[in-house]
Design goal:
- The protein has three helices and seven strands.
- The chain starts with a strand and ends with a helix.
- It is of the alpha+beta class.
- Strands 1, 2, 3, 4, 5, 6 and 7 form a seven-stranded mixed β-sheet that branches.
- It is 24% helix and 41% strand.
């Protein structure tokens, strides 16, 4: 099982969605910024590192939003998604094919990675019930 962390970064009613690059597995599918937890690294440290590497930003890691385990044909991931906020910098295309600030409704129309589908449903439901 591969431990993966991801950032749920909000800006108003929109959160940051990232499109996977062409040369990686699940090319051009959308996802949350993040990546694998390296040996000896905490989940929070991994998320800080991944956001710096992928987006060129510093984030403040908040509480855990949701955990999901998903089996892909090539690997099984345990994904921990954390609430994050931008502390420094503007997201840049350092690794992804595209970045987009989306509402929960807009996100449901994008082709996200299968591991993220359950998360998107919860984000959508929580925003809908909060209104």
């Amino acid at each position: 099982m591969t431990e993966v962390v991801a950032a749920l970064i909000w800006e108003g009613n929109h959160f940051l969605a990232c499109q996977r690059p062409e040369h990686k597995a699940r090319a051009f599918l959308w996802e949350f910024a993040g990546g694998k937890v390296e040996p000896g690294e905490t989940k929070e440290a991994a998320l800080l590192r991944e956001c710096r590497e992928e987006l060129g930003v510093t984030v403040a890691v908040g509480s855990l939003f949701m955990e999901v385990t998903h089996r892909y044909p090539d690997l099984t991931v345990h994904l921990s998604l954390y609430h994050c906020r931008l502390r420094e910098g503007t997201p840049q295309l350092l690794e992804h094919a595209a970045l987009k600030w989306v509402t929960p409704e807009e996100a449901l129309a994008l082709p996200f990675c299968p591991a993220d589908v359950e998360i998107l449903k919860r984000i959508f439901e929580e925003k809908r019930t909060a209104q």
